[in-house]
Amino acid sequence: MAAAREEMTEAADFANELARAKTIGDAMELHQDYWTNLFETRMERFRDMTTETLDVVRKNSAPMNDAMSKMIKATPMDAFSGYFKK
Fold first, then answer.
1. CA distance 28 to 52
2. Which residues contact 34 (CB under 8 A, 6 or more apart)?
3. Do residues 44 and 7 touch, judged by C-beta distance below 8 A?
4. How far is Cα 86 from Cα 13, in angstroms, rounded to an integer?
5. 3-state class (DSSP) for residue 1
6. pLDDT reported for residue 55
7. Consecutive sets of 10 residues in the chain, 86 residues long: mean pLDDT of each?
């Protein structure tokens, strides 16, 4: 919600600045700056969300990974020998 609120505020500021532009060049520069900033901000948020998601997945899958590792270590490899013969 905070991100949406921030983007709406930035969009309103952009519209106000665009309305005050004196030349087409000024308007184009404002336009480019706004979209560049919006893209960079969204990419940063996406990277943050991805990092947080990976942290949660790692934390929540750790017990299962530990259990699987123990099970694999406890199973003798010759138990799988029939699966790998031609």
1. 36
2. 10, 14
3. no
4. 70
5. coil
6. 94
7. 92 95 95 96 95 94 86 72 64
pLDDT at 69: 85
Environment class of 68 (CB within 10 Å of its CB; exposed 0-12, middle 13-18, buried 19+) = exposed
Q: Which long-range contacts (CB under 8 A, 24 or more apart) does 39-42 make?
A: 41/7
Distance CA 46, CA 12 (A): 23
18 secondary structure, DSSP code: H
Handedness of CA 14, 17, 19, 23 (dihedral sign): negative
The set of residues, in sequence order, having a beta carbon less than 8 Å from that of 31 and lying 6+ positions away, is: 18
What integer pLDDT is reported at residue 80 of this predicted model? 65
Residue among 31, 4, 28, 2 at smallest CA distance from 15: 31
Across 1-86, the runs of DSSP E, i.e. the strands, are none
